[in-house]
Each structure stands twice: as C-alpha cells, then as structure tokens.
Amino acid sequence: xxxxxxxxxxxxxxPVTGGTLTAVDAxxxxxxxxxxxxxxxxxxxxxxxxxxxxxxxxxxxxxxxxTIALVEGRATSLGVLELPKVGGDVxxxxxTWQIDPQHSSIQATAxxxxxxxxxxxxxxxxxxxxxxxxxxxxxxxxxxxxASVDSDDETRDAHLRTAxxxxxxxxxxxAYKSDGLVRIDARHWRLDGVLTLKGVxxxxxxxxxxxxxxxxxxxxxxAAFSATTEISRDDFAISWNQSVLAGVLAIGRTLRIDIDIxxxxx
Length: 266
Description:
Elements: E1 2-9, E2 20-25, E3 30-35, E4 41-47, E5 50-57, E6 64-70, E7 75-82, E8 95-99, E9 105-112, E10 116-122, E11 125-131, E12 139-144, E13 149-150, H1 154-160, E14 174-183, E15 188-197, E16 200-203, E17 206-215, E18 221-232, E19 254-265
Parallel strand pairs: 1-7
Antiparallel strand pairs: 1-4, 2-3, 2-5, 5-6, 8-11, 8-19, 9-10, 9-19, 10-13, 11-12, 12-14, 14-15, 15-16, 15-17, 17-18, 18-19
C-alpha cells in the first residue's frame, strides 16, 4: 500500500487546520479520507498504487483538487495545497472603511551596525480608506503619532523622539495621503501617495497585498491589507548617525516599513 502526505495552507502561508482530504480513484470511488493537523499537515495512507484525485475542503475556504499518481509501496508528497478564503477575491465594497488600530500595525526596521535589524512600532494612528468604484479611484488617509514609537527600549525610544530623529515636540504628526492606486493583479496593488514626516513631504509608494473581506464577530464587515515600502531617512531630514569601525554606520539610512491593516466598513 502507499502513503500520500501534504499540507493545507492559505495563499499567504497560514496553515489550514481541520480541513478534509478525500482521495478518489479513477472510477470516482472514495478510497481514503483524512483531516489536516494544527500545522496544516495531513497523511492519507492505505492507498493502492494508481491515479487519484485529492479533494481538499475546509469551512470558510474555497475547495481545491489535485490529481496524482501513486507508486505501490512508496510514500509520496503532494506538497502544498492552497485554499483561498471564501470572499478572498471579492474586492471591498464602495464606502468608507475605518482603520482599526487595535488589529493593525505599522513597523519600521533599520539595520544596526551593518549586522542585525532593529524593529520599532508606531502604536497610535488613525485613518480611513475611501473605497470607490472603480477601485482605482479609491483613497487613503492616515495620521500617526510619532511619540508612540516603541522599540522595546525606553532609552532608545526617548532618543528617537528628540530632534535627532522624529522631533515629536515640533512635529506631533506623521501623515500619509494617497494620490493614486494602480492594479498589478487581483490581490496586488501599488498605492501612490505622499508621506509627511518631520515637516518634509515626499512621494512614497506602497506595495499593497489585499488579504480579503469577511464578517467580524460584531456583525460588521472587515477588509485586510498588508503593505511594504522602503524610505531613506535622509529624505526626511533624519540624518543623525555615528560612524563606527571601517565607516560602518550605527544605524542604516534605509528604513523598511511593514504595515498590516484591518479596516471596518462604516
């Protein structure tokens, strides 16, 4: 007899737990059945050699199927089966979507001493997404409190609030306002916009991934997005640095920004 293994995930790599895997032979008769584990992994065993269609299904996800030929007595891997969430390809409805800061995050990452990375989060922000029809006419506005910077070190955070970096006493807000949205494919978009930081405004595009839309626990409708970009500190008058051995900078000039957003339809 043969064994067939694999893993169920969402398209963005999260495991799908409790999914059902059914192996159907060439005549349409079910020959095996299993459930996915907490890590998304599954094993269908006791299968004779031959051709099978494996059907994967899980609550809240679109089903998927894959055909594979098994060799008698040999273990075979089906690899990863991706199950998109139901509604994952349904674009957000037109209207005003308020960003939920409790279920969203804005993180900046800088290179330290040319070796490792330091992460910091901006804890306080608010904003909205105005979804239009067509979607390309949508807009985004976000206001961030720079004094909410949190890098898990109080001394460093106090320095980040000074004129060397964010100068929060003089510039109490960071703002981002979009001025264009370009479709790459069904899930990927480029958001063009202007970032205003420390009194300087500059164009900063965001690479946006749409994560889907669905109901929440309180009767509302939510949409999820992630976005990334890189900015130069020099573009925003944040030029403080120290040079250490061989001219290596204490803090890299490029910041990587990672954003995860949940927004609620108003």
